[in-house]
Predict the 3D structure of the following.
Amino acid sequence: MSQLIDVPSVEANRAALANLAGADPVLVDVAPAIEVVPGMHRNLVLASGPSMPWSEYCGGQRTAILGAVVYEGLAADLAAAADLLASGSVEVAGCQDYGCVGSLAGVTSASMPMVVVEDRATPGKRAFCTLFEGEASARLNYGVWSDEVDTNLRFLAEVIGPSLGRIVRASNGIRLLPIMQRALRQGDELHSRNAAASLLFLREIASSLHYAGASVNELLAYLTAGDYFFLRPAMAAAKVMSTRLAGYSGSSIVTAMGFSCRQFGIQVSGLGDHWFTGPLPWLQEYKIQFGHQIEDAEFMGGESIITEVCGLGAFAQVSAFSLQDYQGGVEGMIQNNQQMYRITHGESALFKLPFLGFRGSPTGIDVHAVTDTSIAPVMDIGIAGRHGGQIGAGLARAPLQPFIAASTVLRK
């Protein structure tokens, strides 16, 4: 359990946010999970959301977990992988219990390359996230397992991860906060839009690209193939930053959010590592790709909403009006963003919103405020299809139940 700091409850939230303001997330390495994630071992697969028994996983998230077992060479096929998981020979656990954050299904296994982000202001405090799988619709984290997915995962592990790791280590780490702050001024909200941040990252490493060696052209092709590379460093940065909010006795600030294929959960500063859970989120706005309909959608997990915990993503919507076609239009984005100030304890000292006169983004989701107003946090999410793959994107609302439950415990 987290060590609680005995601070009067009225002051606790203020103290937690002041601590968040001192964060300095730095990308320090890219390396296999088994080498960098504490507690990781060959027979462990991590997935998005609070830990659940293997029997509870379903749909695309279940398929992705099975695929990871086959990918690691622990089973010859999905059926054999299911037997190993059912017997307990292979374990499954929630990403955030291990300091990781998982995109969508969130599946993370031993040999997968991880971005390693350290809070330089607190040496040794780290968070981890897998690399972006690329623009292809067939991705493990979107519930697809196939030869194509397997080949791509091995390419990331054997080519992209090692070459990017050499660059990061030769650079003595890459500070992420300046990139994130500038990207907010260039049209990103650091969740559903990372176009500016991805290009700013590439510019940051340009002078060190020669450390990639023979893989430099493949690395450049990977980094420029789409706009979402930086989402994973942003997620790990948000995770390591959010740990600064944790451990203040009486504090009602949310320190983690995530959901699996079955449930949504939150952790709260003054309540240690306990997960308060409830039903899955609901979609407020969305855009579905041609050839699909909303009935094809499936929630299979997601922890990229850790960015919202730190005042990014849907809590910084007004920085990314290009997302308006699936965020309720410009007026809807403004209203949603402003509404979030009603359920947060304060404004970010790190992330400023140009459209709002450089006002700090709403930061520090307060379970009491959510309970008292019945305003659920908004979250930017990708939408997966029930047969796997991404079929859209949208704006979701968290369920109220976990916030009410946490608020009730704190008020006893």
Q: What stands out?
A: The chain is about 35% helix and 20% strand. The radius of gyration is 20 Å.
